Amino acid sequence: MLDLTRLAAGNMLTHMMADFGADVIKVERPGVGDDLRRFGTHEAWWKAYSRSKRSMTLNLRSDEGRDILMKLVETADVLVENFVPGTMEKWGIGPDVLSARNPALVIARVSGWGQTGPYAQKPGFGSLIEGMSGFAAMTGFADREPLLPPLALADMIAGLAGFGAVLAALRARDQGHAKGQVVDLSLFEPLFSILGPMATAYAADGSVPRRNGNWGDVAAPRNVYRCADGGYVAMSATMQSMWERLAAAIGRPDLVDDPRFLTNPDRVRNRAELEEIVGGFFADRTVAENLSHFEERGVTVGPICDIRDLVEHPFIQGREVIETYDDPDFGALPMHAPFPRLSDTPATVRAPAPALGEHSEDVLSDIGLSPDRIAALREGGVI
User: Fold this and answer.
1) Three-state DSSP class for residue 81
2) Residue in 3, 19, 34, 155 annotated catalytic
3) The pTM is what?
4) Section 91-119 average pLDDT
5) Catalytic status, residue 266
6) Are 78 and 170 in contact (CB under 8 A)?
7) pLDDT recorded at residue 34
8) Which domains does the chain have, with CATH numbers?
9) Mean pLDDT computed over 43-61
C-alpha cells in the first residue's frame, strides 16, 4: 500500500490498514516529510498514526521520482493520495496512468470537497468543512458563537470512512465485480452524513438544528450536570423506561404523569423546566455520590473525564484501550490500542512510527535498484 498523503485524514486511513497488517509504504518529500510530523507541539500525532508504516522519501516533482513511483505501483494493491485535485494529473501520474500500469490498483483520493463539483479546487482543511457542514452551527450554547471541535474531527471521520471504502473496493475486486477503481473521498460528506437526518427533517417540517449546549434535540432530559464537588456527570434518558427510572431515582415519580413530561416529545418541548428539576438533584451530590446513587437504580449516568482520569480508569485498564509500545525516541510510549477487535485476525502494532526515509533503501532494493543507483538518487535529491 502506497501512502502519499499528508496530515490527518489519509494517515488515519492508512494507519487503520497498517494495524490490520497492510505493508504501508509512506512516500514523503525528501528533507521535509509529512506535515503530521509537526502537527501540534510534539510528535504525538505522528507517533500514534504512523505506527507500523515504512517511510521512504521520493521527490514526485522529478521525472526520476515519478518513474520510481510507477515501478512501486506495479505491485501495489492500494495507493492513497490527498493532493489538491488535478495535481496528480498535472504530474502525469493521474488515475488513468496509474491504472494502465496496474489495472488492479485501488486509488483512494482524499480531498476537502471531492474530485468533482464547483468546490473541487478550493482549499479543504477540516476546519472549513466543520464550519460549512452544519456541525459548528449546532455546537455550543445558544448565546455564544458556533464552536469548532478541538480535534481534527472531519479528517479523522473521513479516514475511518476511507478505511471502509478501500476495503469495499478490494472486496469488489476480489469477487470479480471490478478491477481496480478510484475512491473519491471528500472530508465533507462523511461528516455531513453523521450529523443526523438534517436534510430530511428540514424537508419534513423546516426544522434547523440550533445550538442548545448539551441539551439534546431528540431526547430529554439529556445534559452535563455540575455536581457538588465541582465535577460533572453526563446523563441521557433517551428511552421512556429510562425516564421513568430517573424520575423515581430523584424522588419525583409524579413527574412521569405530569402532562409536560408524558412523552419524549413533551419532554423535549419543556426541557428547560425539566432540566432545572433534574439538575438540582445532581447539584446537591458529589460526582461519586451521583454515580453510586444512579447506578444502584439502573439509570445511565457517567463521569466527564479528561486524559488524566482515563489513564488510570478501571475501564480503560480492564479493556486495554491504551497500550504501551517501545519507541526509539521516547522508550515506553502509550497510545490507543488497535480497533475494532477481530476474534481471529486481530490488528497489531508491529513497529513504531518510522524516521523520515528510514526504509528508502529497503523499498528501492525490493524493486531491484542497486546500491550505486540508490546512492545516485540520494545525491540527486530524488530520495
Assistant:
1) strand
2) 155
3) 0.93
4) 97
5) no
6) yes
7) 97
8) 2-193+353-379 (3.40.50.10540), 222-304 (3.30.1540.10)
9) 97
